[in-house]
Amino acid sequence: MPLSLDTSLQEALGATPAKALDRAFGMTTVGDLVSHYPRRYADPGELTPIRELPIGETVTIVAEVLSSSARAMRNRRGAMADVVIGDGIGKMSLTFFAKNIGAAKWRTEELAVGRRGVFSGKVGEFNGVTQFAHPEYELFDDEDAARRRADARAAVLIPIYPATSSLQTWQIAKFVGRVLDDLADVPEPLAADVRAREELLTAREALEQIHRPKTRNDIDPAVRTLRMHEALTLQTALLQQRDAVRSLAATTRPAKPGGLLERFDAALPYSLTPDQQTVGEQVAHDLVGSWPMNRLVQGEVGSGKTLVALRAMLQVAESGGQAALIAPTEVLAGQHLRSITKMLGPQLAPLVMPTLLTGQMPAAERRKAALRVASGQSLIVVGTHALLGEKTTFADLGLVVVDEQHRFGVEQREALRAKGSSPHALVLTATPIPRTVAMTVFGDLDTSVIRTMPKGRAGIESFVAPLAEHPGWFNRVWERAAEEIAQGRQVFAVCAAIDTTKKTAEVGEQSLLQGEGAAGPKWGVVQLDEALATHPKLGGLRRAVLHGRMPSDEKDAVMQSFARGDIDLLIATTVIEVGVDVPNASTMIVLDADRFGVSQLHQLRGRVGRGGVPGLCLLVTEAEAGSVARERVDAVAATLDGFALAEVDLELRGEGDVLGAAQAGVRSSLKLLRVVKDSKLIVRARELAEAILVADPDLGANPGLRAAIARRVTEEDRAALAKN
Fold first, then answer.
1. Which residue, among 20, 51, 47, 21, has the nearest Cα to 35 in the 3D structure?
2. Can you tell me the distance from the alpha carbon of 225 to that of 445, in angstroms, rounded to the nearest whole number?
3. What pLDDT score does 167 carry?
4. pLDDT value at residue 161
5. Which residues lie closer than 8 Å to 708 by C-beta, 6 or more apart?
6. What is the phi/psi pair of residue 252, to 5°?
7. Crossing angle between the packed helical segments 715-722 and 219-246, to the nearest 10 degrees
8. What distance in Å separates the CA atoms of residue 493 and residue 481, rounded to the nearest whole number?
9. What distance in Å separates the CA atoms of residue 672 and residue 219, rounded to the nearest whole number?
10. Which of 158, 383, 597, 717 is deepest in the core (most CB within 10 A)?
């Protein structure tokens, strides 16, 4: 029976291979397997004699095992297998490291003397002997097979697949070959005329040429075709999600003459910035539309996004509707409530009764707050994940405001929206997002940007303190902090960990960049507080610590005390990264700055320079000049433009990290697509998707595209898209 992309791997390959592929890669269908693309190709034309192998090059050779032995390593744990191979003229060694002697012996048993095969790897040299370290290889079953395969490999490229220790690239290639041989016609995501106009291959040709290219000229057209398929599938799914929201009926929430919004605007002691006015008009228009608002507002740190959100809340409140603002941390939720109450003033606050609802509030206080929310007495509700609980109900939830969207998962976002009848949604982020990322991740939202900053900001100066080159600058950092405090100002000092002796990063935070500096950060909150206690100028000043593992009431008390000016120096983790507003805070010191991402450093810097006091940001790092970690720190110090930094971040880290774990559905769809390199292709895919959906909203005339979406964008992925 011919196979389809939806055929199970068990049916296509048998139970044992199917189980291995599922365990290694989560593959269950033929479509999953054929979308596991080679990461590179070995060129059989480069079957160079061992004596002529170029050091540093990746090559493929055919050779025979001449000797094979296993031994435990002397100076560290583990074992290694030493194998010598030859091609009849020259010899070279293969080295494999293993966890224990048993694993090393398994390798030598597989690579027994006399076995022949194809070996591929990067040529190295050790003690004058040519070697491969952990090469990829395929052993031949017998001499006839060896001859046949060697002859075949002389004619075609060898695909090298992402593999695991239990599933080698050769096995994957064999499985892919088997299903391609039996695969029936592959559905086309694009109509023939569009495919011809875009100069794309058929879907079947693309799969054949990416997995079994005859020459390198076959690869690029296949990759471009499959990238377009990915981009088109994703963009169409995003637009379908947008259209699904627009098919819902929304309760219109118009502002009224002399109402809450008009009274609020009249009482403002300052004028809105041009961008605040523009975005405010967009939001006001959305709130009287026939479908629910679904808008993302990007804005620099301190650009006034909260004010835009509050004006939307007041417009909704005029019709008796409630607005719920969900924040990622207790500290930020409390900060938002105080900020909103202060902006409303004594005349308006009692009319909307801003209410805080968090999980760590005392039970009696939480019950009272929940009652005000359920009865509709409170029209503005600010909280954390407690808003998502089954016991939290709303009388008329008309607007959901999500602050720092990347901190929330799919189910959490949808759980809050489900508490109302198609409520409007406003998503805020202070993390600027490059255009192609926004199009790829937030393509179902209308997007607004606030670039202009409120007047009266004194600005921020940023400097790197590179301790690798200038270790003496560490003392100067703290002298500078003392100088600021002597002028009546306040200082933040941020660490990447709570306690370095316990390796405690902030719970739920991503400040520690995995894979960099295995020793971990040098400074934790605990260690810095102890060190500064004996500092000649800072030891006697008012210090406090703040981190995510402190009790909620204690965190809130520390933050309020700092806001009142009762604390000179606050030593904290990234719990203060967003939303904390202390106009008198002038200085931000970030220790182990190379442990943080570009956007985090930019967010932290935004905590200072928020009032009339000039801001100073000191990025302390021991990263060597020229390293990627140091490049991040230098980039932040070089500009205050968050949108420029977002592009730098994308280039330095790649879209996988920028999209983040919360965008798992989106990331799983990015097999070949790269949002930086393929920006033009993504834009074109968006145009094609829009045209297709205008002509064919339910994709009845585009069954191939509909099938691709069903196959590639699962219900879980759709939820990931919906949460944005």
1. 21
2. 27
3. 78
4. 86
5. 187, 189, 229, 232, 233
6. -70, 145
7. 60
8. 9
9. 12
10. 383
Distance CA 533, CA 303 (A): 36
CA dihedral 494, 500, 503, 508 (to 10 degrees): -10
Burial class (CB in 10 A: 0-12, 13-18, 19+), 387: buried
Count CA within 13 A, CB hemisphere, residue 339: 22
Q: What band does 409 get if pLDDT is binned at 50, 70 and 90? A: very low
Give residue 12's pLDDT.
95
Tokens describing residue 275: 């961008």
Alpha-helical regions (H) of 47-139: 101-110
Instruction: Report the 10 Å Cβ neighbour count for 580.
Output: 24
C-alpha to C-alpha distance for 190 and 192, rounded to whole angstroms:
6
Q: What ranges in 464-609 are assigned the alpha helix state H?
A: 473-486, 525-532, 552-564, 598-605
Query: What confidence category does residue 204 fall into, taking pLDDT thresholds of 50, 70 and 90?
Result: very high
Tokens found for residue 101: 């002697």
> Measured between alpha carbons, how far is 62 from 280 in angstroms, rounded to an integer?
68
Pairing label, strands 294-299, 380-383: unpaired
Q: What is the pLDDT of residues 243-297, one digit of tens each?
A: 888 888 889 999 999 999 999 999 998 889 899 999 999 999 999 998 999 898 9
pLDDT of residue 714: 54
Distance, CA of 361 to CA of 99 (rounded, Å): 49
Half-sphere exposure of 409 (CA within 13 A, CB side): 8
What whole-number distance in Å separates Cα of residue 568 and Cα of residue 545?
11
What three-state secondary structure class fits 124? strand
Between CA 677 and CA 284 the distance in angstroms is 37
- pTM > 0.70: no
Q: How far apart, in whole angstroms, are the C-alpha atoms of residue 256 and residue 279?
A: 19
Report residue 549 as tokens. Answer: 């593992």
405 pLDDT above the threshold of 60: no
In this prediction, residue 699 carries a pLDDT of 93
Query: Among 56-60, 289-293, 531-535, where is mean pLDDT lowest?
Result: 56-60
